[in-house]
Amino acid sequence: MTNTLLDTMVIRPVRDDEVREMISLWSEAGLPTKPAGRDTLENLRVQLNAAPDLIIGAFDGSRMVGVIMGSDDGRKGWVNRLAVAPDMRRTGVAKTLLNRCEDALRSRGRQIICTLIEEYNEASKELFVSMGYKREDDIIYYTKRDADDV
Ligand SMILES: CC(C)(COP(=O)(O)OP(=O)(O)OC[C@H]1O[C@@H](n2cnc3c(N)ncnc32)[C@H](O)[C@@H]1OP(=O)(O)O)[C@@H](O)C(=O)NCCC(=O)NCCS
Description:
There is one protein chain. The chain is an alpha+beta fold and 150 residues long. Helices cover 32% and strands 20% of the residues. The longest helix is centred in the middle third of the chain and has 15 residues, at 93-107. The structure holds coenzyme A. Residues 29-31, 82-84, 89-95, 117, 121-124, 126-127, 130 line the site of coenzyme A.
């Protein structure tokens, strides 16, 4: 039987010295980042060190091929910034990362896990529905930003 990527892939928390690689992967995956706001190296390192169990990478050898950033607000668990390298998609990397992040959030006592998805993002909508998430059309997302680039 041939090995699939999932057989050899390592899933583990992202290390402090891998934050730059995580940002590059977000860019490669087409996710917008806020380098002058919440995505400065310093902010990301603070977030990672505050909850190292929730920022999880998928590694093919030494290469980070997927990443997920969970967060825990004490009431709900959140899934953010899930990204898989374009050449590694449709092999189950996102599903594996999402399962691992959900487990970490449940270990913290969270019983509801949420995510925000932009309407155009069909791949992401399909993924979350396939993982059992329910679309909540009666909720509208409001934000109050101290600047445009935060
Ligand atoms: C969305 C994304 C993370 C999915 O990663 P992935 O590793 O390819 O996803 P998986 O292989 O685990 O797919 C699991 C399931 O999700 C759904 N899915 C994933 N990509 C899909 C696509 N392009 N179109 C339709 N369904 C898709 C399918 O149901 C799939 O199961 P299947 O392959 O057995 O049909 C990836 O496309 C990505 O990085 N996109 C850019 C960044 C992004 O939009 N992130 C999400 C922010 S909310």
